[in-house]
Amino acid sequence: xxxxxxxxxxxxxxxxxxxxxxxxxxxxxxxxxxxxxxxxxxxxxxxxxxxxxxxxxxxxxxxxxxxxxxxxxxxxxxxxxxxxxxxxxxxxxxxxxxxxxxxxxxxxxxxxxxxxxxxxxxxxxxxxxxxxxxxxxxxxxxxxxxxxxxxxxxxxxxxxxxxxxxxxxxxxxxxxxxxxxxxxxxxxxxxxxxxxxxxxxxxxxxxxxxxxxxxxxxxxxxxxxxxxxxxxxxxxxxxxxxxxxxxxxxxxxxxxxxxxxx
Length: 262
Description:
The protein has six helices and eleven strands. By secondary structure, the chain is an alpha/beta fold. The protein has a single domain, classed as Rossmann fold (3-Layer(aba) Sandwich). The longest helix has 17 residues. The model has no long low-confidence stretch (mean pLDDT 91).
């Protein structure tokens, strides 16, 4: 079974500035890390290959320094990875990001299963996985909380919905997006890190894709544009309510009514 995991490098801090012109995050000089949900996707893939056989590759889109998350994934046990890096990819929304990933996946190879994390901590749209699947014309399932079995042509999974958990069987090839409750990710191996070589990480640009129309990528290929983005304002105002329990309850009720919470 050949598995591909989509991963992303995200800011490692909440203190990230926003470009007032483009509305995108200023990532230069900001410490980065692998998107936490992608760690669950990686662990899922590695568990499957350990149980059923096969290999795991990873793919990411970002600047050249996104190579770091590919290296981390290799240290966790994946075979190799691909970085989709090109200035013409910059500023992409969910649609353009998914399309870029789909083009990179087509160039990378054929896979039985593609796994994504539920969402990213810098975007939180939880839409990329489903849109990649649509561009690749693959069946997809989101909110996967467990993989129950794998046969030659199907994967059997449990899916978390609003008020229940349902089970489903999906034919290969397919794409699934996993939730954070599915497992506990392993740590990268320092011993493996010492043996990571350049040939394990491949870089692709727009010039390598089947579709080289620049209007389908980055800001040009984005169906949505951010009009305004800003960090939330911090409210440090506080008050102390004194008195006995009845007096405190009355003051608290008056406060709640005053700020129109009830």
